[in-house]
Amino acid sequence: MAGNDLDNLKPMEVDTRRSSENARGIRGSLLTLLSRPSPFGNETGPLACGEFEPLPKLSSCYATTASDHESPLTKAKILVVGAGGLGCEILKNLAMSGVRDVDVIDLDSIDVTNLNRQFLFRQRDVGTSKAKTAAAFINERCPWMSVTAHHGMIQDKEPSFYSSFDCIISGLDNVEARRWLNATVVGLVEFDDDGDMDPASIIPIIDGGTEGFSGQARFILPRITSCFECTIDAFPPQIAFPLCTIAETPRKPEHCIAYASILQWPREFHDKKLDSDDPDDMKWVYEKALERAKQYNIDGVTYMLTMGVVKNIIPAVASTNAIIAAACVNEAIKYITFCSQNLNSYMMYMGSEGVHCHTFAYEQKDDCPVCTSTVQKMTISKTTTLNELLQEFRAGPLRLKSPSLVSSGGKTLYMQKPPALEKATRSNLDKPVSSLVESGEELTVTDPLLESIAVGVSITFE
Ligand SMILES: [Zn+2]
To answer: Which residues constitute the signal peptide according to the record (predicted)?
Structure first.
């Protein structure tokens, strides 16, 4: 833009005359969509959850007078989880769509390496709260929008905090936080005495995620579509590769690097922890990985890859974030206004080999521990100890973090917290499970990862 008067503006200043014209233009196209009847309204889609009613008059979507605040978008209350690469894009898109009431939550502070893509932040903001700085930027730049910032962990908020929103858009970068958020929001769904769901208690999570040139956006209607936990198998486990592969049958350069850092390092250095910021440590891992790769005729071990595997670095690509955030905000707008059909239920974007994108209905998993009430069935040996069973909950398909166990009779078998209860139940750990519970007995497993969801497990002995 070459306008002379724009040159005189300071970075945070806005040419209100121009931007209001521009904003009106951009948002005006959304207004067109919202003010006319549509054959593609939500009620005709596979996930019909509301009926589209065109706005009564053209100006009502973003009118500036107080009497005209009747659009679903201007009334909606949206939570954005994460104010990083996706979060900045999501907040900007919501602002440009005429959404007014938004909360944003993030634990992180701004790092200088964020500045290339997290465009709501400046050099002077380094070290400050992402949530607070992003909110302040949007509130100043887009005065029609009111963003409330929460600097802290999502786990520190009560479930009632989450139930106060119409829709939650999540731009988180880690699986653990997404599992927690999913379980918490699924846990908000209320049932009446007949077992029918209360539709008002269903809050959708629109979950965006990116990894380099790939990304996904999904629409989760708790207990109706598949939830995040239904698809947990699609994510690599916490140790990226099975230990047996790393130890015995390496096939990829990553396996060799993991071998050097996970198995060889502790053997060689016992008490010294590998410091991924120390070039000497990393050089050692790189050289050992290279040796092992030669042994197995595997190409591709480089110092950069070693850094990537050990530090678990996921490259961030600004344009992937922009595409995924746009898809997420589109879903939010469609859900809030019902003007079009929602994604059912998973969109995958692949940009590393050309550009490829497809959507599919990710089915609910029959025995999902979070969004179904199915009891998980497990068969173990008579000699399996309680400690080994807990280990199976961690490493097995449930992928729990620190499980606690109560028997169907209400007897506490093992509790991770509080410390007094942990101490009182610790002696059970070495006992065979068969001495503590009957075969076929249903146990209740709880874990901080899944918040309020209790998983039923029925144990039978071989
Ligand atoms: Zn599920």
So the answer is: none
pTM for this predicted structure: 0.81
Domain with CATH 3.10.290.20 in the chain: 376-461
- Report CA(368)–ligand 1 centroid distance (Å): 5
Q: In angstroms, what is the span from residue 158 Cα to ligand 1's centroid?
A: 21
Per-residue buried b or exposed e for 118-143, using 16+ beta carbons within 10 Å of the residue's own CB: bbbbeeebeeebbbbbbbbbbbeebe
Catalytic residue, candidates 61, 244, 256, 371: 244
For domain 243-311, give the CATH superfamily: Ubiquitin activating enzymes (Uba3). Chain: B, domain 2 (1.10.10.520)
How does pLDDT run across 139-188, given as a tens digit for each residue?
999 998 999 999 999 999 999 999 999 999 999 988 889 999 999 999 99
339 is catalytic: no
Alpha helices (H) in 410-458, listed in sequence order: 419-425
Q: What superfamily would CATH give domain 376-461?
A: Ubiquitin-like 2 activating enzyme e1b. Chain:  B, domain 3 (3.10.290.20)
Domain 72-236+316-360: which CATH class?
alpha beta
Max Cα distance, the chain (Å): 83
Tell me the per-residue pLDDT of 358-410, one tens digit each, with 9 for 90 and over: 999 999 999 999 999 888 899 999 999 999 999 999 888 889 989 999 988 88
